[in-house]
Amino acid sequence: MHIGTARVALFNWLFARHTGGQFLLRIEDTDRERSTPEAVEAIFEGMRWLGLEPDAPPVFQFERAGLHRAAALELLERGAAYRCFMTVDELAEERERARAEGRPIRSPWRDREPPTGANQPFVVRLRAPLEGETVVDDLVKGRVAFKNRDLDDLVLLRGDGTPTYNLAVVADDHDMGVTHVIRGDDHLSNTARQMLIYQGLGWPLPAFGHLPMIHGPDGAKLSKRHGAQAVGEFADMGYLPEAMRNYLARLGWGHGDDEIFTDAQAQSWFDIADVVSAPARLDWPKLNHVNQHYIRLADDERLARLVFEGLRSRDVHLPHDFAARLARTIPLVKEGAKTILELADLVLFALKPRPIVLDEKARGLFTDEVKARIARLGEALNKTPSWTREPLAAELKAFAEIEGGFGKFGPALRAILAAGAVAPDLGSALAALGREESLGRIDDALSQVQ
Q1: Mind listing the pLDDT tens digit for each residue in 224-237?
Q2: If you placed Cys at 80, which of 1, 69, 75, 102 could pair as Cys (CB 3.0 to 4.6 Å)?
Q3: How far apart are CA 57 and CA 61, in angstroms?
Q4: How far apart (Å, rounded) are the C-alpha atoms in residues 183 and 208?
Q5: What is the dihedral of CA 332, 333, 338, 343, to 10 degrees?
Q6: pTM across the whole model
Q7: Catalytic residue among 141, 221, 224, 361
Q8: Which residue stretches of 87-228 are H helix?
Q9: Pairing state between β 123-126 and 155-157
């Protein structure tokens, strides 16, 4: 599920919630080769992860082929469509002529009577008008006009009787009572053709709104070189769904200068008229800022589950009491994390197995004076009655005043507590590790530098 598709779904969801309507999901699976079970499940997973649950069970377009064929037959009865008996070779020749003359394909059967007494294969084509304009009063882009002479007599039913996309979506939208269609502007030319089908059937038109594309930071069309594109990739990179909803809502729409807002606020404020028609740009620093905000707000138990899943996928060795360590560590370090992956990196120091092993650089910090200070610090810390961040920070400050400053022992203590990973401030690191683990690491280090 592409991030652009996710934003389209989000804007439909916000519009439905704002107007008291229904948010519907349809799987347009008439292309059977592309619509594999895996591809369909990826859409469902992306929607579930984003928290965009539809208000009715999903509709599968392929299952509604009978409805689509009935619409094509009605167009034939109304004279708004015709049977085209062009052979494959004739179609290829007409396509070449049309390309050379800069016009759409026109079938000679548009104004002919069907052959009698012959069982020839045929397709059903729309009888598009040759003069005038088809005007889309777009909710985002305003008035967009298409010359009818540039619109082809598109195929509605293929030779095997299967409906095409443009016919299927019109029949489905009408049958499902769809009042507003909000989608990417790559569908704008399809909309003009679909409007002709609506008119041919005498059906009322829904309102159409076409969202601009999402571009990369450099203004070019979003591609693999810009990083993640699929919703699942953003989840794997450690972004929270509520952060993605907030950030995607700001890609092409906004409410004043508000950067951070709740779902309820977005639903209350959202107006399709406020969506800009220019392409939006994916801004990684802004996304990280928004995600960091929601990590700070997130429940610590939820964050622990997400971190655990991330560490397990990286095959990190976890101690038997990892859950307790995560519970102690996450509240102390989460403010510094922009993603769940960063949060996982920030808790690694607390999960290192004992005995810890100092690397060569760390060993170089332990002069005889430093070793003596670390030993005295261990004794002082052992007497600390409350092993929480504030009392521990106060104990470290008092010890530093006696010993001549943090620089006399701080780097060595950090090397001990971090065990080769990234660690927070010393008071937080001690609190996260707990009394037994902290003092045990000090003993491990001193035994290695004797």
Answers
A1: 777 668 899 999 99
A2: 75
A3: 13
A4: 8
A5: -120
A6: 0.90
A7: 224
A8: 88-101, 165-175, 188-201
A9: antiparallel
